[in-house]
Amino acid sequence: MSNPAVTKLQRKKIGRYEVWLDDNIGERMHLHINRFRVDLDYPEMEQLCSDICAAMNELLQIPGLDISKLDPVFLEHVLCTERCRLYDLKKVCDDEVKLSELWVEGERIKKLDKSVFFKELSGDAASIKEKGSDHIDQTPAERMQECLKSVRENGYPWNEQYIIVYGDNNIIKDGQHRAACLLKEKGDITVPVKRYYYDPYIPQNEKIRSSILGPLYMKFYRFADKTNSLKITLKAICSGLRKLIGKKNLKKAVSAVYCLVNKKEVNRMRTLLDEV
Amino acid sequence: MGELLRNLHPVTLGKEELMIELNAGGNKKTGRIIHIQNKDFRLEMREKDFLRLSATILRAKSEMDYIKSREKGKKYGISKSSIAAAGDAEENVIKHVADILDKNGVEYRLVEKREGLVTLIADPKKKKQIRKVLKKDRKIHKKIHPDSPLFGYRYLYKMEPFEMYRLNGIYLQIYYRLPCLSLTEKTWIPLDRAIQERVWSCSGKAEGYNMLDEISLYIYRLCKVIFKQKTFSDADIAFFEENRKLKDEAELKRLLEKVFFSYTDRLLSMIDEGKYEEIIADYLAYY
Fold first, then answer.
1. How far is A188 from chain B (nearest CA, A)?
2. Residue A47 phi, psi (nearest 5)
3. What is the DSSP string of A180-195?
4. Pairwise CA distance, residues B55 & B57, whole Å
């Protein structure tokens, strides 16, 4: 049976396992590990998450760290993007910092009140498009507004989710939006933060990024990234054309080009089909 | 394999209770190993992979919570229909195409007609023959469908892509299976096999051509409103109000359950109460 209401929540290759989770409205959630599938309803999923957090805490045994209090987006970033850095985490300490003393990472490391997050809240045209969003179908602007709403309604820290900084420096690793909203709403107050002490202490790339070579490094990094995506796009176009022409399906290729040229007609058909 | 170091925590999957165990690996390279197991089942992975798997599950739950909380209380509204009724030109196109298909022994049903656009569903087994006979007719010109794979659309479950033709200024859209747009972007899937079978086992003949039976049409229209339009128009509401009597038919409920699963009863009761404005958000927030 095919369910049209399937939303892919996560999909990843983890070791030798292909893992994905979908929400199937009207059915249960599906957790796939390769060809093996587990169906879970919402309470079962909640129970699974709570069991997993307990198991992770027991496995890591890091003083001061409670996985269930971490933002899952940040946790996933640390484990999947930052090369599993939780292994190097030695301890988590509570501290208090004035908002004006916090820094935000970006192309350059900036003070919180000079960051794109704070500028966006102050109505500055500075765009936070590049910062992306946390959730499916969420725009960066929506993310900012939802964060502001949460700070207004629930205060800080909500659900024991603190701003996170690494080591003794004040560069925010998680909670840039929250910090900007707090600065906007309450001014330069002192807020509780969590300090993550790693071994070795300096996180990946941070030394070079905070040095005088930082902007140059970031420019090179972005250029390399762009070139890579251009390469991928060109590769896709070439392989598409090769597929079409290789199969002696030249007619299809010609009609595709015709369609692109005849945009008006395609648009007319699209309007007809989308009419409500 | 591996020596048990310690039990981390029990985990419940459905009705099964499993234990998450930390084991010493076979050699230095593998590192420590996690077993998620009970006496009948074991899933083995590296410690690092277990942490990543856990983070992925927690992230998925947070995505789910976000989607549901966003949809809760959202109002999709009711739009004013801008569709004009089909006229003589559309009728002539239907008759012309129906005539061609009848002559060639091809089964078809009319799904929709409106100003400028006629939609038919035709027998998928005779796809090649249909293309051939329509191509032979000099008045009919094949077009590239805007939902074609060339524009990035995907058709799952071996569904045949839609086709578009043009005849006397009217577009003719041909489905080979009754479709439904998925919540996954640019993805079409066929409605359940039981619905497809009903399309061909029942038909209503009117004005000289075969029409889709009313239950199949009801389901198709409901799916279109919820998944594609994401809004009820006044024309849609008029249609569902006209077909109120169908709501109590066991066959409709049986087939709707193939699409909406456990939400079906709630959906039918909301239609009965006329809560059209709330249906889409309520469905998307349902779990």
1. 30
2. -65, -45
3. HHHHHHH-S-EEEEEE
4. 5
A contact test, residue of B54, B220, B234 with most A CBs within 10 A: B54
Average pLDDT of the residues in A83-106: 84
User: What is the residue whose two structure tokens read 């919402």?
Assistant: A42
Q: What is the C-alpha to C-alpha distance for residues B171 and A270, in angstroms, rounded to an integer?
A: 11
Alpha-carbon gap, residue A52 to A247, rounded angstroms: 49
d(CA B272, CA B266): 10
Residues of chain B with pLDDT under 70: 1-2
CB-based contact A3 B259, cutoff 8 Å: yes
Structure tokens at A70: 């971490």
- Partners of A1 on chain B (C-beta within 8 Å) are 192, 258
Determine whether the interchain pair A273/B263 forms a contact, defined as Cβ–Cβ distance below 8 Å. no
H-state helical runs in B104-126:
none
Instruction: Let me know how long chain B is.
Output: 287
Tell me the whole-structure pTM to 2 decimals. Answer: 0.81
C-alpha torsion angle, residues A52, A58, A63, A65 (rounded to 10) = 0
A27 interfaces chain B, CB cutoff of 8 Å: yes
Span A176-192, pLDDT tens digits:
999 999 999 999 999 99
Q: Judge whether A45 is closer than 8 Å to chain B, CB to CB.
A: yes
